[in-house]
Amino acid sequence: xxxxxxxxxxxxxxxxxxxxxxxxxxxxxxxxxxxxxxxxxxxxxxxxxxxxxxxxxxxxxxxxxxxxxxxxxxxxxxxxxxxxxxxxxxxxxxxxxxxxxxxxxxxxxxxxxxxxxxxxxxxxxxxxxxxxxxxxxxxxxxxxxxxxxxxxxxxxxxxxxxxxxxxxxxxxxxxxxxxxxxxxxxxxxxxxxxxxxxxxxxxxxxxxxxxxxxxxxxxxxxxxxxxxxxxxxxxxxxxxxxxxxxxxxxxxxxxxxxxxxxxxxxxxxxxxxxxxxx
Length: 278
Ligand SMILES: [Zn+2]
Description:
The chain is an alpha+beta fold. It is 40% helix and 15% strand. α2 packs antiparallel against α3 (42-63), α2 crosses α6 and α9 packs across α10. The site of zinc ion (ZN) has 4 residues, from β9. Residues 231, 236, 238, 272 line the site of zinc ion.
């Protein structure tokens, strides 16, 4: 485990004691959550990962000099993935402290040729998501509600209102726009949403060579969504890959999580994303 984590952090200074402490905290956290988590509680695993990441980060920062900015990574396991491998090893690791966690990690490394099948997310030192697993149909990231993650709906933004004037028009050649209404309405969105859609388009071009991101809807002035929809404010977008292949939506949703949208939902025939106001 520790060896795998170590190998996965090529920019780290391997001689740094703080890095070894970071690695131990990460390994113990990973083992605990991969063992005690269950398949139905991935959201809880991610929340716990966030709490442990914050604690380890604050401890490292408290020890560090000004300007300390490493690219260390925090691995969040898929809930319950290691039960079949670990057996009682975790109790040994927990009772004997970080050095035992590292030893257990070496034994784990013999069992797994790659850490990837066990990882749900990888965060950088600042908590941004670097790698996310595919999002299953019907699931959303983060685990909390859209209103909690992106902020409650404030109501319909009408054309010509001051709020409408604050929207921007997405004219990005790397994004295919459906423009269902033929009015350009689907291109209207908040600046934050437009910026993230542009970043996601680059991720899509890299993940699916020859393909582009497709935008089916953003701002909706026509009341086509539920009463609390963030589409009415231009804070939500519906997306697919331009071949409309549903088999790509789980990966598209994962790329959206990595891009930094505040809430991502894998719906039946598209991925819905939303962002906070401002
Ligand atoms: Zn939507």
